[in-house]
């Protein structure tokens, strides 16, 4: 797959190789995202090859943008009350905010 390919022409499901190329990460990273459950995927066939639905990848990317936006907002101190964003066991003194997962 290359940059000149129309994403709509790819089809509903992507291989992990396609996912890794789209995200510009290694196959190990793409596999890790799937195996951890962070990126929803299904296994196809007897050998159990992973397939990621294109809409799930797009949602994952959107969620990552939102997560990074929230981290940046916390670090900039734009919110006086960060309780809406932090996990229950996180404090404002933590060097890396632990944000609650997106719904």
The Rg value, from CA coordinates, equals 17 Å
User: What's the number of structural domains?
Assistant: 1
Count the helices. How many? 3
- Secondary-structure element pattern, one letter each: EHHEEH
Tally of DSSP β-strands? 3
CATH architectural arrangement: Orthogonal Bundle
Regarding CATH, which class?
A: Mainly Alpha
Separation of termini?
32 Å
Helix coverage percent:
25-40%
**What general form does the structure show?**
elongated
Specify the biggest β-sheet: 3 strands, antiparallel
Which ranges are low-confidence, i.e. pLDDT below 50, for 5 or more consecutive residues? none
CATH-defined fold name: Multidrug-efflux Transporter Regulator, Chain: A, Domain 2
Average pLDDT taken over every residue: 80
The largest beta-sheet arranges its strands as: 1-3-2
Structural class: alpha+beta
Strand content: 5-15%
What oligomeric state do these chains adopt? single chain
């Amino acid at each position: 797959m290359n940059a000149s390919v129309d994403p709509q022409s790819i089809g509903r499901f992507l291989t992990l190789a396609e996912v890794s190329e789209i995200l510009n990460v290694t196959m190990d990273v793409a596999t890790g995202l799937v195996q951890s459950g962070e990126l929803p995927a299904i296994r196809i066939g007897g050998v159990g090859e992973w397939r990621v639905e294109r809409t799930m990848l797009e949602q994952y990317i959107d969620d990552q943008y939102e997560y990074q936006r929230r981290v940046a907002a916390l670090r900039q101190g734009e919110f006086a009350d960060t309780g809406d964003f932090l996990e229950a066991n996180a404090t404002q003194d933590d060097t890396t905010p632990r944000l609650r997962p997106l719904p």
